[in-house]
Structures are given as structure tokens and as C-alpha cells.
Specification:
Low-confidence stretches: none
Order of helices and strands: HHHH
Structural class: mainly alpha
Number of helices: 4
Number of strands: 0
Shape: globular
Helix content: over 70%
Largest sheet: none
């Protein structure tokens, strides 16, 4: 259930604000639900904490997700 997933990921972010995976999955979930502004916020936060550790392919994918939220 999407609502339960969102609450679980948000709780994880509350506990560890700089842990990237919950931010990424919150972004994906919000995007799937059509909430682009919230998805963008989570993707940008994810980028802030993990971008330097991502592979070039992962960076490109994240950049595409961010751009899709802006359109």
C-alpha cells in the first residue's frame, strides 16, 4: 500500500535525514502518485547527500528523474 510505504520512508528520513535510500524511494513513490513537486524535493535532497558516490549511470538516471519532475 502506497500510503503505508510513504509513511515508512518518511519515518526513516526522520530517524536518519542524510540516509539516501528513503529519500530516493520517497521521490519515486511521489512521482508515481503524480506529486511532482514533492518528488522533486526528495530527489534533490537525495542528490545532495549521495551524488558524489553515484556511478555515472546512476547520476544520469537521477538527473532524468529530476528533469521529469520539473516538466
Amino acid at each position: 500500500d502506497m500510503a503505508g510505504a510513504i509513511e515508512a520512508w518518511k519515518r526513516a528520513v526522520e530517524l536518519k535525514p542524510r540516509f539516501g535510500y528513503p529519500l530516493y524511494y520517497l521521490g519515486l513513490t511521489c512521482l508515481a502518485l503524480g506529486n511532482k513537486p514533492e518528488a522533486l524535493d526528495y530527489f534533490l535532497r537525495y542528490k545532495e547527500v549521495t551524488y558524489r558516490t553515484l556511478s555515472p549511470a546512476e547520476k544520469a538516471k537521477l538527473d532524468r528523474l529530476i528533469e521529469s519532475c520539473r516538466n
